[in-house]
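pasting for the record
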Amino acid sequence: MLTTEATEALKNEVDADVRSFLAGCTSAQDRLAPTGCPFFHFTDNRVELPIVWEITEYPEVKIRSVSGNWVLSPLNGKARLTATQTDLFTGAKSPLEVEKDFSFAAQLSVGSTEVSVTPLVD
């Protein structure tokens, strides 16, 4: 039986799309839960701007063929949040730095000349 494998060019294009999506999640969002993004942080403290997200571990792109279609495996990575927080009970300010694991799925569409990646984030 023959198995089909994705080319390096396809993997590289999908990886670039995933990185572009995550770049949109980390740039100028200033939110603990950036809209449409796979990571978030909740706290009972007041968090001051700026709120900075940084991807510390990008997802590894794994593509496989299933029933003649290309399927992207779940994407897992890590993001770091840095900001300043104020304890609402004591008023004490302190640095906020947390690393969050994240995971999301994405729909992969491969045409004869185009590839599109559609992140599926709840």
